[in-house]
Amino acid sequence: MTLAPGKALRFVWGEELAELAKRDPRIVVLDGDLGSSTGAYIFEEAHPDRFFQMGIAEQNLLGAAAGMATVGFVPFVSTFACFSVARALDSIRVLIAQPKLNVKITGGYAGLLASMTGKTHLMWDDVAIMRSMAYMTVVAPADDNEARQAIRAIVDYHGPVYLRLTRSDSPTLFGPDYRFVLGDSVVVREGSDLTVFSTGVHTTRVYEAAELLAADGIDVHLVHVPTIKPLDEEGIVTAARRTGFVVTSEEHTIIGGLGGAVAETLSDRYPVPVKRIGLADTFGESGSDAALLDKYGISSEKTASAIKARFLDWKKNA
User: Fold this and answer.
1) In terms of residue numbers, what domain contains 227?
2) Model's pTM, two decimal places?
3) 78 is a domain residue
4) What is the side-by-side strand order in the sheet with 74-80?
């Protein structure tokens, strides 16, 4: 099945927050001078009195958001992931996570595809950093439908949340009947040969890879993990039991990301072979989306080849 075109998650974020804020006066947005890129401008136009332009001062931005949370607001922080996570990490750790404040941190332009903004702006270790932080919830939706529902769930949840969003348009994976539940994984494709876990918009590429593999006689059981922390451990174990062989695939470093989370869970609860596919121990560079996906081996086609190679090697040595 070919996936239909979808909307960029950054614009979905701006639209959904602007709509939710009509009914919830607690919602405010604090922007790090990137609203035209992150989609925050949509909220600014709808609710100018609840939009705060904090400039290029990310540590202060996170600190101000923490202060607003203490008086009952639900502040959403808007900037690129490289700034909200890496540049302001101390503010997140000390001012937000430790006191468990109700701040929603948005990591825009996360992952590999940041529209040639330069390698300093690429952030593909954000999940590893944020999921290791006590009290932090980490969410990475796959498409526009799931992103809207995830944003609603995040508003209802009381506590610090990191929301991973991407820049480029991404295909629509889920239909109108789909229901996002914070903390749950979801089976995207049922299969019998091997189990593959993915997260974020990369799940759309892994789905396409699974379809390519089906034509090659390999039946993938694909599980999407939109909430990386808290992890759906029961769902992970159930899916692993189905086939006895697991591959993880993500637009993130293989060190400490979804693959690490899955491997940690299965090593404790149901030891099976786990192979991780993702970005290596490296930094990135500027380039077109297609060129970077190909170079770093996570396009749909290269993901299919990587999954196939690991599966055949396991079958040969089983």
Assistant:
1) 186-317
2) 0.97
3) yes
4) 51-53, 27-31, 74-80, 104-108, 161-164, 137-139, 227-229
Peptide bond into 230 cis (omega under 30): yes
Retrieve residue 297's tokens: 């081996």
Structural Rg of the chain based on CA atoms:
19
Token pair listed for 285: 């560079």
| Chain position carrying tokens 């190909």 | 294
pLDDT digits (tens, 9 = 90+) for 251-263: 999 999 999 999 9
Give helix 144-156 / helix 9-21 axis angle, nearest 10°. Answer: 40
Kindly report the CATH number assigned to the domain that includes residue 108: 3.40.50.970
Residues 6+ apart with CB under 8 A from 195: 220, 221, 222, 223, 239, 240, 242, 243, 245, 246, 247
Give pLDDT tens digits for 39-94: 999 999 999 999 999 999 999 999 999 999 999 999 999 999 999 999 999 999 99
Q: Which of 103, 68, 56, 108 is nearest to 85 (CA)?
A: 108
- C-alpha distance from residue 118 to each of 123, 175, 213, 282 (Å): 11, 35, 34, 14
Q: Please report, as a single letter, which amino acid is at residue 278.
A: G
Q: In what order do the strands lie in the sheet with 186-189?
A: 186-189, 220-224, 194-198, 246-253, 274-279
Q: Whose CA is closest to 192, among 210, 165, 208, 171?
A: 210
What is the CATH classification number for the domain harbouring 290?
Answer: 3.40.50.920
Answer yes or no: are the C-beta atoms of 113 and 298 closer than 8 Å: no
Angstrom distance (rounded) from CA 315 to CA 318: 5
Question: 252-297 pLDDT, tens per residue?
Answer: 999 999 999 999 999 999 999 999 999 999 998 888 899 999 999 9
Q: How many domains does the chain have?
A: 2
**Residue 27 bridge partners (DSSP):** 74
For residue 36, what are its two tokens?
């035209």
On whether residue 176 sits in a domain, the answer given is no
3-state secondary structure at position 264? helix
Report helix, strand or coil for 94: helix
